[in-house]
């Protein structure tokens, strides 16, 4: 019979948001293979939920349920598994953890669902193991795990640099209405970056976040933000999944304020003026036959946070 394991909490429930990239400018590949980025992230109201429970020393056990769970490995290929292992190693923690991941963010969608799982796991394990680490202390570990993990901890609207892992909050007003169209199937992030290299990056475009985008965010005016949305990975994503072109083209037909492929795709994010417009567009996209489903979300929202202990 197993012994009682520890005196800490019996379960810690954390949620972390999906992200979209309002701008994603990509520079030429670095010697380590990663591409330098100038990006603006926004966290949106689509969440991964992770519950961490005590387990025997050394054990990291993962159960995955929800959206796309059958495509997610439950072993050490899972970023949440690696997050728990990294935190344990760095803090000398010998206790184990049982993780229950409930997914709402589609897999390989350009929305950083796996990164949200990792961010939520860092925070959940930190509380479960009573390590008492705050977001600031978790950020360097998050950066080791993946380019999008620090932003999933931070949330809000933020400028990302380096390979995406260096994040700084951006001055942004207001709340924005988005409709996310989930394509049939996913795109592999490394494959999209490879295609980007093959197609040839398109300088002389400046490899930086435009002043126009930052000013639009400061004004809180969605009408000004719409034309500023830009993603250098959109061309390679459309090249790998040509059916996305028709989906993107619907923005004009439905008079969205702006449209952009999120991250490495294939999710397409439509910016609209109001909740009513978002509901109309969600219905239209869902019935278009051009995507698997569509979902209304708002942004910015908070990063990873504890819902209950
Ligand atoms: O950091 P992350 O694990 O999310 O990156 C996944 C892959 O995407 C990398 O292995 C790399 O091929 C590509 N990538 C890149 N440049 C970035 C971020 C990711 O080339 N800035």
From TrEMBL:
Q: In which pathway does it act?
A: Isoprenoid biosynthesis; isopentenyl diphosphate biosynthesis via DXP pathway; isopentenyl diphosphate from 1-deoxy-D-xylulose 5-phosphate: step 3/6
GO BP term, example? terpenoid biosynthetic process
**Active site feature:** 19, 148
Q: What EC designation does it have?
A: 2.7.1.148
Gene3D superfamilies, alphabetically?
3.30.230.10, GHMP kinase, C-terminal domain (3.30.70.890)
State the SUPFAM superfamilies in the record: GHMP Kinase, C-terminal domain (SSF55060), Ribosomal protein S5 domain 2-like (SSF54211)
Does the record's keyword annotation contain Transmembrane helix? no
> Binding positions for ATP?
106-116
Query: What is a single molecular function from GO for this protein?
Result: ATP binding
User: What reaction is this protein's catalytic activity?
Assistant: 4-CDP-2-C-methyl-D-erythritol + ATP = 4-CDP-2-C-methyl-D-erythritol 2-phosphate + ADP + H(+)
Keywords, in A-Z order: ATP-binding, Isoprene biosynthesis, Kinase, Nucleotide-binding, Transferase
| GHMP kinase N-terminal domain sequence ranges | 78-156
Question: Can you tell me which family this protein belongs to?
Answer: Belongs to the GHMP kinase family. IspE subfamily.
Annotated NCBIfam families? ispE, PRK03188.1
Record's function text = Catalyzes the phosphorylation of the position 2 hydroxy group of 4-diphosphocytidyl-2C-methyl-D-erythritol.
Its protein name is: 4-diphosphocytidyl-2-C-methyl-D-erythritol kinase
Source species: Microlunatus endophyticus
Source organism phylogeny: Bacteria, Bacillati, Actinomycetota, Actinomycetes, Propionibacteriales
Gene that encodes it = ispE
